[in-house]
TrEMBL record:
Transmembrane intervals: 6-24, 36-58, 78-99, 111-128, 134-153, 165-189, 209-234, 246-270, 282-299, 308-326, 338-364, 376-395, 415-438, 458-478
UniProt source species: Hyphomonas hirschiana VP5
Cellular component, GO annotation: endomembrane system; membrane
Protein name: Putative NADH-quinone oxidoreductase
One Pfam family it belongs to: Proton_antipo_M
Record's subcellular location: Endomembrane system; Membrane
InterPro entries noted in UniProt: CPA3_Na-H_Antiporter_A, ND/Mrp_TM
Amino acid sequence: MNPETLIASILVLPLLIAAGIAATGKFPNIREGVTILGSIALFVLVVQLVMMVSSGARPELFVGQAAPGLAIAFKVEPLGALFAIVASGLWIVNSFYSIGYMRGNRERNQTRFYICFAIAICGAMGVATAGNLFTLFIFYEVLTLSTYPLVAHKGDAAAQRGARIYLLTLLGTSIGLFLTAIMWTWVVAGQRLDFVDGGLLANVEISPAVASALLLLFVFGIGKAALMPFHFWLPNAMVAPTPVSALLHAVAVVKAGVFTVLKVSMYIFGADLLNATPSREFLMDVACITIVVASLIALTKDNLKARLAYSTIAQLAYVTLGAMLADKAGFMGGSLQIAAHAVAKITLFMCAGAIYVATGLTNISDMRGLGRKMPWVFVAFFMASLSIIGVPPFAGDWPKYELMQGAIDRGADWVPFILIASSVLNIAYLLPIAILGLMPPGPEEPVKEFKRPGGAPALTVAAPVFTAFLCLILFLLIDPIGDFLSPAINAATTTVQEAALP
C-alpha cells in the first residue's frame, strides 16, 4: 500500500467502523466484533506507517486547499507516528475493556458509545498526521465534538453539567485562543501554516513581544493540555463511564493536547525562537506550578477517579515543561511522557473501573482489604503507580530522567527539585491505595462483598494487567523509541545557521 493510501486509510477506517457499529447496533456481539476487528486493522495500518517513518520516509497526503495557505494536508513524522501508534494500540485494549465494563455495568446507549469512540479515534489520527495547523485544528475540534456525548453518556444532571463544562471550556479555549494564534501565525508567516523542521517562524521577522503573545495563545488555547488555569474541565469530565475516562486521559483527548503543544513548539517555533521568546520561561513556571498544585489537590481527593484526574493534570504538565525547556533532552522527555503516561494512566483508570463494576465502590477509604478479593487488579494498579512515580524498571522513569537532564543542560537547576517533589507526591497519593487494598479490614468494618456475582468481568481485569506489563516493556524499549524520535528532535533543535550550511 502506498503512503498516500495508508494515510487516507487510517483516517477513513474509523469512520467506516463507526458506520458498521451503527448498522449492527441491534446485535451486540456483531457490533463489538466490528469494534475489535476494526481497531486491530487500524493498528496494523499505523504500524506500516511507523515502519515507513522509521526508515526515513515522511509519508504525505494532499487533499485540497480551502483558501491560500489553508490546505487540508497530512504528513507523518516521528512524533506524530508515536502518538498514532499509542492511540491506535490502546484503542484495541480499551475496546476489549469496554465490552466487559459496559456489559458488566449494564450501561445504556452502548451503540452510541462505540460509535462516538470510533469517531474520536478518527480525530486522534487526524491530529497525529496533520501536515499543518489548519488541518490539525479541524481534527482537534472533531475530537472535542465526538467526545462530548461520551462525557454526557449517563444523561443525569451531573453528567450533563460535566459535559457542558467540558464542551464550553475546550471550544472556548480553542476558538478564542488557539484559532486566534493560528490566524495570527498565518499572517506573520506569509499565509503559511505548515509544520516545518526547525520551526515555521524561525526564518520570519518576528519581534519578541509578538512571539511571546503567540506562544501564550497557543499553549493556553490548547485546552486539552489541561494546563492551569484551564484544567477544570478534566475533573468535571469524570462523570463519564470509566472507558471514557481512559479515553480522555490516555488514548486520545489529553494526549492530543500535549502532543499539539509539542508539535507547535518543535515545528512552528523551533528551539531557537522558543529560547528567544520571553514568555517561554513564564510558561515553564506555570507548568511547574501545575505539577505541584495538581498533585497536592490529588492528595485531598477520596474519590478514586477524581484523584486520578488531578494526577493526570500534573503528569500532562511534564510534556509542556519539556516543550518549554526547548532543548533536545526536554523535547525527548516530553515525547516519551506521551507514551509512558498513556500506558500507566489507562491502567489506573481501568483498575478503578474494574473495582466499580465489581463492588460499586468509588471512594478510596472504602477499599481497605479489597485487594485480597481482587489481587490482579491491585497488583496492576501498584505496577502502574510505580511507573507514574518514575521507579525503574517502569517506563515512567525515562521521561523524568530526560526532563531533569534537559533542565540541567539549560541551567534551570531548580526544575529537577520540582520533578523530585512530584515523585514524592505521586508516592503519597498513589501507593496508599494499593497498600490499603492489601490490608485486612478493620474489626468493625464489614467484609467487602461483590455487588456483581463473580466480581469484575474477566475483560476488565485482563486489560489493566496487560497494560501494566506494557509499562515494563516500554522501559526496555527506550533505545529504539529514542532512536525513532531523534530525527524530529534533532531537526527541531537545529539552528537556522546550521540548517543553511551545505
